[in-house]
Amino acid sequence: MTTTASYSVTGMTCGHCVAAITEELTALPGVENVHVQLVPGAVSVVTVTSGAPLTDDVVREAVDEAGYEVTGRP
Fold first, then answer.
1. Residue 66, domain CATH
2. How far apart are CA 11 and CA 31, in angstroms?
3. What local confidence, expressed as pLDDT, does residue 39 receive?
4. With contact defined as beta carbons under 8 Å apart, do 6 and 63 qualify?
5. How many domains does the chain contain in total?
6. What are the Cα distances from residue 37, in Å, to 53, 60, 66, 73?
7. Bridge partner list, 34
8. 36 - beta bridge partners?
9. From CA 38, how far away is CA 52, in angstroms rounded?
10. CB-based contact 63:46 (threshold 8 Å)
11. Sheet holding 3-10, edge to edge
């Protein structure tokens, strides 16, 4: 079963930020797609599509590892 969830992320300012988040999230088991709606200097929206169940905590840890912060759901 495919699931899609969106997260509000702060601290992103450029394409490098998008690449860092995408790399960390696509490394998670089951992640099929990551889409980032970048809003430099504000709250960006990261949407993750996964073929396996993914908890918010796992996504939070991956985003944290990339150097950014999940602040909630949009």
1. 3.30.70.100
2. 22
3. 96
4. no
5. 1
6. 23, 17, 16, 13
7. 48
8. 46
9. 25
10. yes
11. 31-37, 44-50, 3-10, 69-72
Q: Copy the structure tokens of residue 67.
A: 């150097």
How far CA 17 is from CA of 2, 10, 37, in Å, comes to 26, 10, 11
DSSP state of 41: T
Q: Which two tokens stand for residue 19?
A: 């690449």
The two tokens of residue 74 are 């949009």
pLDDT, tens digit, 9 for 90 and up, residues 20-73: 999 999 999 999 999 999 999 899 999 999 998 899 999 999 999 999 999 999
Domain around 31: 3-72
Q: Which residue is it, tokens 């992640």?
A: 31
d(CA 10, CA 67): 10
Rounded Cα distance between 63 and 27, Å, is: 11
